[in-house]
Design a protein that fits this description.
Strand order of the largest sheet: 3-2-1-4-5-6-10-8-11
Helix content: 25-40%
Mean pLDDT: 96
Largest sheet: 9 strands, mixed
Strand content: 15-25%
Order of helices and strands: EHEHEHEHEHEEEEHEEH
Distance between the termini: 25 Å
Number of strands: 11
Length: 214
């Protein structure tokens, strides 16, 4: 049993992850911004915690994270507004890393995206540019931290049924079911061999537990 704090607790992946974790006996604190989402999160097996990560400083976030065994960042601004994208996907994410270090919670799993990199190649005129920059900065900060980190890079998310199998060796992005992304998060939390690794993946043919060990 592990105590896991999940930022972005009402997201499409998070709502599929929560029953996986709670079903295996983990205690999940799901951080949400909108109190109207609390019932859905509770129904998924997590304990909702209403907090605005965009507004909280490192000290407040450290208090929120303290007592847990692992942090999962699956939050995001949702695109559209570059300033808010930077505030959430970069700045707030980095504050949770600082807070985790301060709280002594070493395990940290970042949900990024397949093409995330400092040399992501997205044109500055592309609306996706702010997100690409924000994720690159957050991922780089996590890798440079003293945390036991894993960065996950799923490709395009679909609503297809989860198949329990992925391709973690693909060189180009394809697509992957949200349910399989949730299952990957759950699997890496149990596999210390994924610490210090970036795992990019599409849907595929290899069972998840085996794919993340490659």
């Amino acid at each position: 049993m592990a105590r896991i704090i999940l930022f972005g607790g009402h997201g499409g992946v998070a709502l599929l992850l929560e029953p996986i974790l709670s079903g295996r006996g983990d205690e999940v604190t799901a951080v949400i911004r909108n109190p109207d989402h609390a019932a859905a999160v509770a129904a998924a097996g997590a304990t909702p915690r209403v907090a605005d990560v965009e507004a909280l400083g490192v000290d407040a976030l450290a208090e929120l994270i303290a007592g847990h065994d692992a942090v999962v960042w699956s939050a995001g601004a949702g695109g559209g507004d570059p300033a808010r994208t930077r505030a959430v996907d970069r700045d707030a994410a980095i504050r949770t890393m600082d807070a985790a270090e301060r709280a002594g919670v070493r395990r940290y799993v970042m949900v990024s995206y397949f093409g995330a990199a400092e040399d992501h190649g997205v044109d500055p005129g592309n609306p996706f540019f702010a997100y690409a920059e924000a994720k690159a900065a957050a991922d780089a900060r996590l890798r440079a931290s003293g945390l036991d980190w894993t960065v996950l890079g799923p490709s395009g998310l679909t609503f297809d049924p989860a198949g329990g199998r992925i391709d973690a060796g693909a060189e180009e992005a394809g697509s992957v079911a949200r349910g399989d992304v949730a299952a990957v998060i759950a699997a890496v939390l149990e596999d210390d061999g994924t610490v210090g690794r970036t795992i990019r993946f599409n849907g595929g043919d290899t069972p998840i537990a085996a794919a993340i060990r490659q």
